[in-house]
Design brief:
By secondary structure, the chain is α+β, with helices and mostly antiparallel strands. The protein has 3 domains: 170 residues, PAS domain (Beta-Lactamase), CATH 3.30.450; 93 residues, Helix Hairpins (Orthogonal Bundle); 167 residues, Histidine kinase-like ATPase, C-terminal domain (Heat Shock Protein 90), CATH 3.30.565. 49% of the residues lie in helices and 18% in strands. A 5-stranded antiparallel sheet has the order 4-3-7-6-5, sandwiched between helices. Strands 9-11-12-14-13 form a 5-stranded mixed sheet. Strand 5 and strand 6 form a beta hairpin. Helix 1 packs antiparallel against helix 5 and helix 6 packs antiparallel against helix 7. The protein is rod-shaped. The relative contact order is 0.07.
């Protein structure tokens, strides 16, 4: 058995094939499940990140607003209470320091007051006796001198950048505008800083700088708040991965192992995992594989039966030929020798006919799989087939001995079916030839076509003796023939079997029945001929 797979050519010559658009997997439960779970995990992470980013920006902005309000209040108090000198005003450092002592500055904040020259007049850390602390370096060894803890180059560079950033901020505030933002302090922390100029009329007396050093704590808290989102997202991804592994990877692996078992051990049946209850693609795949292997097993059984039938049918003429050849040397009578030679000729012709019909039958599967079905008009096909018999008669027949008539229910309306034209034409030629072979010399073969419930029904009737009721199903078996009116071996018995195989491949049905005739004198029904009926789905 050979299978030919051809790549279909695109319509319109060299025109490129149409683009395939991405679409939601309609009817695919596993596809929707995979997409939903992965998108859900991604949405959780994205939403959590967006919410926390907005929260962080809002907290920083809120802290800037709070420091700005607090700084403006302190600046106004200092302007009203610590401004001295006329007509050139200046800040009184003692009064400003006293004000700092009276004001409440939270421990998480730092307030510093600079004069017009950038010199520090007051510092809330100094007023509150708050000092920075750090781990002391190791104790000095005997004889080792050290002026103090030495900073590393990186620490020195960081401190210089922090001092420069503070100086730039104060310089911008000296121009008479409030400066707010985040920067790195001298101890390396990220702080929210607001520098407000202290202005008396139009004179800049100094700058008030407020710093909040809890930004890192806020960010750490936000990162801790992000952990639940991350854990939920990772859990969803892990669960989806495990679920997809159990629902897809493991069943596919089991199906592959079952297929390998059939391939390696030569088994005809496949032991598939129990996936038939699943209403998804894997369930469909399991059922399709099971049906495919069942179909292949049936086909292999049919091939074995076909091979056994072929061997049996070929063995009969070969046995006859061998017997005739063995007897030929012993016979001296010319008449007997002539009869033996006639038997030999008849057996050779029978053997040649069998080989030809067997070859055609063995190629039928390959031909049906090679040709793609297409829409054909059964009215036109039956008309063409019937017209072939107007000039073709059996040997010894007189013109018009066996007529072939055609009756169409609606010739003007196409009777379209989805089929292969050559095999379907072969079916009706076989049926008409079979009907003509059983018809009397003045008989008629009638071919008709009708419609019923979305199906096309073609019938071929003859005026022959009919068939025994017990043989109505047997006549479609291979090598079965019952032609008492013809000589033995004149027919291979494959015509009706091939016709049934073609009709079954097209999703139709073929059966035989006797045409009832008039009742005889004894009251028994008679048979007026045979009728073969072919039913095909309409396209």
């Amino acid at each position: 058995m050979a299978t030919v797979t051809a790549r279909p050519e695109p319509a319109g010559g060299d025109a490129p094939p149409p683009r395939r658009r991405l679409a939601w997997p309609r009817g695919s439960r596993l596809g929707r499940l995979i997409i939903t779970l992965n998108v859900l995990a991604l949405v959780i992470v994205v939403v959590g990140a967006l919410v926390l980013n907005e929260l962080r920006s809002g907290l920083v902005n809120a802290r800037i607003d709070s420091l700005s309000t607090q700084g403006e209040l302190i600046a106004n108090v200092i302007d009203q209470s610590a401004t001295v000198g006329e007509p050139e005003p200046a800040l009184d450092p003692y009064t400003a320091s006293a004000i700092f002592q009276l004001l409440f500055i939270p421990r998480s904040q730092r307030a510093r007051l600079f004069d017009a020259h950038g010199k520090v007049l007051a510092d809330s850390f100094v007023v509150a006796d708050r000092v920075d602390w750090k781990v002391l370096p190791p104790a000095r060894k005997p004889g080792q001198t050290q002026d103090g803890p030495q900073k590393t180059p990186a620490e020195q560079a960081k401190a210089e950048r922090a001092q420069k950033a503070l100086a730039d901020e104060i310089a911008q505030a000296m121009k008479g505008r409030t400066v707010a933002g985040t920067r790195i302090s001298e101890n390396g922390e990220r702080v929210v800083s607001v520098s407000i100029p202290i202005q008396h009329v139009r004179a800049i007396l100094g700058v008030l700088t407020l710093e909040a050093g809890d930004v890192d704590e806020i960010i750490s808290a936000e990162r801790r708040a992000l952990l639940p989102f991350i854990i939920v997202a990772m859990t969803a991804i892990v669960l989806s991965s495990v679920l997809l592994h159990r629902l897809i990877a493991m069943p596919v692996l089991r199906l592959a192992r079952a297929a390998d078992h059939v391939r390696l051990q030569g088994a005809r049946a496949i032991s598939l995992p129990d996936l038939s209850r699943r209403h998804d693609e894997l369930g469909d795949l399991s059922r399709s594989l099971e049906e495919m292997t069942h179909s292949l097993s049936e086909r292999m059984d049919a091939i074995e039966r076909f091979a056994a039938d072929v061997a049996h049918e070929i063995k009969n003429p070969l046995t006859s030929i061998r017997s005739a050849i063995e007897t030929l040397d012993l016979v001296t009578d010319p008449a007997a020798r002539a009869r033996l030679l006639a038997i030999l000729q008849n057996d050779v012709n029978r053997l040649d006919r069998l080989v030809t019909d067997i070859s055609n039958a063995s190629r039928l599967d390959a031909e049906l799989s090679r040709d793609a079905p297409k829409a054909i008009d059964l009215n036109r096909l039956l008309t063409e087939v019937s017209s072939l018999y107007e000039a073709q008669l059996r040997p010894g027949e007189a013109p018009g001995s066996v007529r072939v008539s055609l009756s169409l229910a609606d010739p003007s309306h196409p009777a379209s079916i989805l089929a292969r034209e050559t095999p379907i034409g072969q079916v009706f030629r076989n049926l008409i030839d079979n009907a003509r072979s059983f018809s009397p010399a003045d008989g008629e073969v009638r071919v008709s076509l009708s419609r019923a419930k979305g199906r096309l029904i073609a019938a071929v009737e003859d005026d022959g003796p009919g068939m025994p009721p017990d043989n109505l199903e047997t006549i479609f078996e291979r090598f079965y023939t019952d032609r008492p009116h013809q000589g033995f071996g004149q027919n291979s018995g494959l015509g009706l079997s091939i016709s049934k195989q073609i009709i079954d491949a097209h999703g139709g049905r073929i059966w035989a029945e006797n045409r009832p005739g008039p009742v005889d004198d004894e009251g028994n029904p008679t048979v007026s001929g045979a009728r073969f009926i072919v039913r095909l789905p309409a396209s």
